[in-house]
Amino acid sequence: MRALKWMEIGSLVLVMATASACSQAQELRPDTAQFGSNPISYKLTPSYYFSSDNNDAVDLNLRAVLGEHTVWVGVYHDKENFQQSRTGYEYRHDFGLVRPVFSAQLASGGFLGGSVTAEIGGSNFAIVGFGRTNLKDYFNLNFDPNDAITLGIGSRALPKTELSLFHIWDDRLDTKQHVTHAVVRYKPNDAERWTADASYKHGRTGNGDNVQGLALTVTYDIGDYFARIARDQHANFSAASQNRISLGRRF
Questions:
Q1: How many helices (H) and strands (E) does the chain have?
Q2: CA 23 vs CA 16, 40, 43, 196, 248: distances in Å
Q3: For residue range 146-196, what is the model confidence (pLDDT) as tens digits?
Q4: Which residues does 50 contact at the CB level (< 8 Å), separation at least 6?
Q5: What does the pLDDT read at residue 39?
Q6: Which of 203, 225, 199 is nearest to 212 (CA)?
């Protein structure tokens, strides 16, 4: 297990070094990541999950954004040798008072899922969402129910600040899983941003046990780099709690 862990960490370092080299190459050849006149921006996120049941895991995710379109690929691997590759597509559009986001996910093992989420309003807005999957095995990296409804409110009325409060609950599988999020995003200047996401969950695990727990995720962005740490009790409505760390770069 120790050898596997060091191999995983080494892989993270290698991927980040490769991303850095690609970024430098793009600076020398600025048309490398072009589609027409619009640049494609990338975000690489290596993450490591420390689990209380010792089933630690590594995750690598690469996102590419071109205007209203986002595509991502990733791979998850844990110490119990569960591995899953995934890809997805997201389309967002601003109609003024309605700003929808359509998303689809595909993962190895036959998983297929999709969702639509929208903001409705101006600087103060409502949040609504709906998601469905084909119920195939999937390691859920958003740590909320996927077959669910989302309702909430948000505001950008305060300077440099975005606030949101929303509730997600399973409406399909009778797990009674509910998660409430309070999110604060603060951008003190053009180079930095802080994001804090505090949440409370309650519901049944896959074994039918009732659990409840708290989670807190803090992300700091500076320039092209960002770091994220999280503490999550009963992660993905399991018996295990997790500490998660992500270090990433945009290029």
A1: 1, 16
A2: 10, 12, 11, 28, 13
A3: 999 999 999 999 999 999 999 999 999 999 999 999 999 999 999 999 999
A4: 56, 242, 243, 244, 245
A5: 87
A6: 203
pTM score: 0.84
**What's the token pair of residue 245?**
């760390």
Work out the average pLDDT over 19-29: 38
Which domains are assigned to the chain?
A: 2-250 (2.40.160.40)
Task: Please give the C-alpha separations between residue 97 and each of 94, 100, 155, in angstroms, as whole numbers.
Answer: 8, 10, 13
Q: How far apart are CA 145 and CA 57, in angstroms?
A: 20
Q: Which two tokens stand for residue 152?
A: 């909430």
Rounded to whole angstroms, the Cα distance separating 92 from 103 reads: 9
Residue whose C-alpha is closest to residue 141's, from 73, 71, 225, 54: 73
